[in-house]
Design goal:
alpha/beta; seven-stranded mixed β-sheet; 29% helix; 15% strand; globular
Length: 278
């Protein structure tokens, strides 16, 4: 990570969602992946997007996720791509782990980079879910033993929060009318998003247009669909203001109090939907 300066602010975390679909259907997913979305980000588009910002912002931690990132057939190559643009950032791949076997080159890629790691996000403790995790953990043990891969287990299900109400056409934002409180309780308040060459405050705002394109959302979403991300031709002053901004009106789409809930077993898509393809 380059040293911060008045012209080059530091982002605590910058995320790139390399795939929009997911093999799980976690209720209230912040990427809306449980709403049967699909598609991936090409290496070429990601490279162009990173090049627009790598000389303007420093990044403490760069996360590759989704959706489920292992759906992307070229996932291992994204590690080197991030490293090219941010030589000193910490890199993490956040995955549910079920498709790790599709990427036999990944452990060598991770092992070759001392500041890259794998995070396995566990979404339920139900017996059927844990049974499906056994081969994942066995593979992970092999990668640790044979390659020295650094990997951690994140119990995501323990702190799962509701970001919106409803599903699809009936999805609604919260109306607590306290953006400051919403920002303070937000688990992703420092998770800026790189999407289509622009930088967004958070995943729910970045992927809301994708949700709007698929469903007939209530007009209550219109103010949040008007959110303007940071453009690559922004001025230094605009960049600094964006980096320093905490709560804003757009934060009001999320709850002002932490809405923890017990996540249903996410192994099957909701309403008998098929698992989204790439």
């Amino acid at each position: 990570m380059s040293e911060p300066s008045p012209e080059r602010p530091v982002f605590r975390k910058l995320e790139l969602h390399v795939a929009h679909g997911c093999n799980l259907s976690c209720e209230s997913c912040s990427h809306y992946s449980n709403h049967a979305h699909a598609g991936i980000v090409s290496l070429e588009d990601a490279d162009r997007g990173m090049a627009l910002w790598s000389h303007r912002v420093s990044v403490t931690r760069f996360s590759l996720l989704g959706g489920e990132p292992t759906i992307h057939p070229e996932l291992p190559r994204f590690v080197g791509l991030v490293r090219k643009h941010w030589p000193r950032t910490n890199i993490e791949i956040v995955s549910n782990g079920f498709f790790l076997h599709r990427h036999p080159s990944l452990p060598a890629v991770l092992a070759a980079d001392p500041d890259a790691r794998l995070v396995i996000s566990v979404h339920h403790m139900a017996q059927e879910y844990q049974e499906k995790l056994k081969p994942v953990f066995a593979l992970l043990q092999e990668w640790r033993r044979d390659h020295g891969v650094v990997a951690t287990i994140r119990p995501a299900h323990k702190n799962w929060t509701r970001r919106y109400e409803g599903f699809g056409d009936t999805m609604l934002p919260f109306e607590d009318a306290d953006p400051r409180a919403s920002w303070e309780t937000c688990p992703a308040r420092h998770c800026k998003q790189l999407l289509d060459g622009r930088i967004w405050k958070c995943a729910p705002l970045a992927y809301l247009p994708m949700q709007k394109a698929k469903y007939r959302l209530s007009e209550k979403w219109d103010p949040y669909l008007d959110y303007q991300p940071l453009e690559p031709d922004c001025s230094p002053a605009e960049l600094q203001a964006f980096a320093a901004l905490e709560d804003e009106v757009a934060c009001g789409m999320c709850p002002a109090k932490e809405r923890l809930f017990e996540l249903p077993v996410p192994l099957r898509p909701p309403r008998s939907r098929a698992i989204p393809a790439v």
